[in-house]
């Protein structure tokens, strides 16, 4: 029976090759008849028979070159930035076609370079579609092919045979998809796969984020068990003189080092794990598109490994490149329609944004999904992958927009595809969907009030503001508020001449935005400034900020009362000790747990001199981002603070007896418990780090090398979620 099966399998494979070759030949003939700059010719004339033979030779040569040469070319181009690699796909494929035409032994062909690009793209797409259609029609052959692939990979890695391995776990992070958005998408029929799971196999749990509700803080806590001392997406560290940015490779690797030092644990994925499309490794050895790995030097840098596995198939490359171009066109069309309709709120969507969106929603999605499917077929124990498309689109189109809804539909199809492949894996897989935060809608702070937060800070410090901001009503109000606050401060000091009161000399304050959270630091003074020191230096600043209608509250340290929350109260401001706040006061509007989240951040060594959270309207769910985003996250207020866990019912409840996890570190504990349940092991750290002095903790950038701080340089990467 085994011998007969092998012969039938070989015969089926040969038949599929012949069919694909025949379809490719017909496609080549059709293109030669349609395109004026593409010709097929033979030495013995232009008879149909001889031309068909020439086309067959050309199709065969192109297919063979695609199989043999393409992987080598793609590997060479992995040194090129990923975005450029995607744009080179068409050129590379066209070059292979021109080479194939020159290799035809009987006659040849000719094509203009631009025509060769078109012909090669069509040929790859047709061959891929034909091969896929044949596999779909023969489901048994498809299953056998997947099974053989899984068996080969498993044997190479010495893995147990089918049925002997405990269940594996796949964590799929839907970046930026809040609990409310997921529930509404299921209700609207946008995510049928998720809806079916909710009806049959999974439970949905909401969890509350930390004050810093952004991917850097959430994913660090989820994967490494600690996001201590991550006060925002961007923050200034006075002791090192650096600006930390969560999506810079240098910052990401430093944050991962600090988390490992604090927990003495390598991470959630340290035992036979894979990390795909994430900011951090989670301790995994198998990496693809992981930001912290991008900072590694030499052979340890595997951040682009996933590109080769995916783009080594020219059909994948062409399909993704075509989808990339289509997504760019889709974004341009949606942006134009938004302007024509006069949608409000609206933000700028020009420049490089269409390319950035297409990379997040197409290239990164395709590579990550392919990597996860490969991980399941290889039988890996734990996989954590991040799908970032929704978050990127929601930032610029709004979390409840039609544009974002379309992305959710495509994400659901990707989840369904991965679930289908899991059926052919050598072990059972439990798939967990989760998010790292949500998004809250609202017009930007600048759009609502005509000036940026930095303009407002400068006005409060008595520094010049931009002429445009100064002419706005809000700018005039800011100057008036600063003037009144300054006069009040001078009156309390004994009535000095206002003309003689000037801001203290020194560098300007650093204002860094993290969605609707902002961090203000005075770089020329060491340590965390107190409220009293800020008042002596800039008497009007805190009153100007706290009294503005676009700001919800401030957090500062007081010499007399400890840390205090300063907020608007009628025509004035109120100052309350943070230690005594509970469900009442200025933080009550932000919901249960807000005071605890603020208190936790207040304990961080690198908390800013002034922490600023925008206003929040509980009736509309609106916040005001301090950067150019109409869907934002990073602080407190609304849907951004409520993420979700969608877990199989075979796993224990996230919080025994019901309830919601609070903070990313508690989510890490939940996911670790689920991994241990699948393995049948007691809960505990997976791979503790070597017990070495803190200054010698292994640096994830360079395995085996002592870690050391290094400056954060270079521009921010595209802000996918943060």
If you had to describe this structure to a student in words, what would you say it looks like?
The protein is an alpha+beta fold and about 725 residues long. It folds into three domains: about 5-145, no CATH class; about 165-215 and about 300-440 and about 645-680, Alkaline Phosphatase, subunit A (3-Layer(aba) Sandwich); about 445-465 and about 505-630, no CATH class. The chain has 23 helices and 21 strands. A seven-stranded mixed β-sheet has the order 4-21-10-3-9-7-8, with helices on both faces. It has a six-stranded antiparallel β-sheet with strand order 12-13-17-14-15-16. The chain has a two-stranded antiparallel sheet with strand order 1-2. α14 (about 390-395) runs antiparallel to α15. It is globular and about 95 Å long. Mean pLDDT is about 80; it is low at about 75-85, about 130-145, about 490-505 and about 690-720. This is Phage holin family protein. InterPro entries: Alkaline_phosphatase_core_sf, Phage_holin_4_2, Phosphodiest/P_Trfase. Pfam families: Phage_holin_4_2 (PF04020), Phosphodiest (PF01663).
What's the arrangement of secondary structure elements?
Blueprint: H1 2-34, E1 38-41, H2 48-68, H3 70-76, H4 82-102, E2 108-111, H5 113-137, H6 139-156, E3 168-174, H7 179-187, H8 192-200, E4 202-208, H9 215-224, E5 234-237, E6 242-245, H10 249-263, E7 273-276, E8 286-288, H11 305-311, H12 314-341, H13 353-378, E9 382-387, H14 389-397, H15 402-422, E10 429-434, E11 440-441, H16 445-449, H17 453-460, H18 467-471, H19 473-493, E12 510-514, E13 517-521, H20 531-537, H21 541-546, E14 551-558, E15 562-569, E16 572-577, H22 594-602, E17 610-614, E18 616-617, E19 622-623, E20 631-632, E21 642-648, H23 664-679
Parallel strand pairs: 3-9, 3-10, 7-8, 7-9
Antiparallel strand pairs: 1-2, 4-21, 5-6, 10-21, 11-20, 12-13, 13-17, 14-15, 14-17, 15-16, 18-19
Helix pairs in contact: 1-2, 1-5, 2-4, 4-5, 4-12, 5-12, 9-10, 9-23, 11-13, 12-13, 13-14, 13-15, 14-15, 17-19
